[in-house]
Amino acid sequence: MPIDLALGDRAYSSWSLRGWLLFDAFGIPVRTHFARLYTEAFPALLQDYAPARTVPAMKLDDGTVVADSLAIAEELASRFPEAGIWPAAPRARAVARQLAAEMHSGFTALRGDCAMNLRVSYTESAPSEAVLADLARLEAVWAWARAESDSGTPWLSGAYSAADAFFAPVAGRLAGYNLPVGEAAAAYVEAHLHHPSFRRWRAMGLVDGPDQPVYAKPYPTRAWPGPEPLAAQAVVAGPSVNAACPYSGDPVTHFLEMDGRVWGFCNAFCRDKTVADPEAWPAFMKMVRAV
């Protein structure tokens, strides 16, 4: 039975992103429940996850609630040891745990001044001295982790781990606020922007509701620095190549056009998340390539 996971706005809730990545990036089944921040729906959602007061919060099949992303990571690692949430090698695992813990409690200037907003990227954002100090610390611990773990991958401790999931929103902040870091740190950010789970989350975040005005910043904008999506657009009607939604298998009711062909989906959200980044969705691309 899938685990239930309470989450907030995909574009803005950095902690929700961490929690969701602990499932999606490691192939753990989950049933997600969303509520928009700063609305009555948010505390109403969390009533079912007492004593949790924040997201993410998960409810296990026996009714046990585990709140806080670090606790969720540890509990999932215990229940799904084959998923590889933490590195198998003891030294790399120790490094990854240290990194996740520091991210969980540190970098307060970066988190406070540069709230995550995956819907926009700025040409510059005038980072404060405190933010610049956090960036220097990030570069130092990322370099240390790769050296200690002898990582030969784009990730901090070898294979993608919970430590990387915890720094994914930081990568989103560095990309969104165009913050100054060196070549190695920039490459790590780039790896996150190309990661399939990160791309899926951002695609959903672009279309799951209107902008939250509280996150707006008075800086000039630029194109998002991640991979450029394939060109697709919503259309009002079919007929479509496919009769069943590639995600649910249900009959199609909403449509998009890509490369001169029309494809169908079972609801507007399935269609719109696909329009936002078609290549982020393996089930859709498999269907497209099969025709």
From TrEMBL:
Organism superkingdom: Bacteria
PANTHER family: MALEYLACETOACETATE ISOMERASE
InterPro entries per record: Glutathione-S-Trfase_C_sf, Glutathione_S-Trfase_N, Thioredoxin-like_sf
Classification lineage: Bacteria, Pseudomonadati, Pseudomonadota, Alphaproteobacteria, Rhodobacterales
Residue ranges annotated for the GST N-terminal domain, each copy included: 3-84
Name of the protein described by the UniProt record: Glutathione S-transferase N-terminal domain-containing protein
SUPFAM superfamilies assigned: GST C-terminal domain-like, Thioredoxin-like
Organism for this UniProt entry: Acidimangrovimonas pyrenivorans
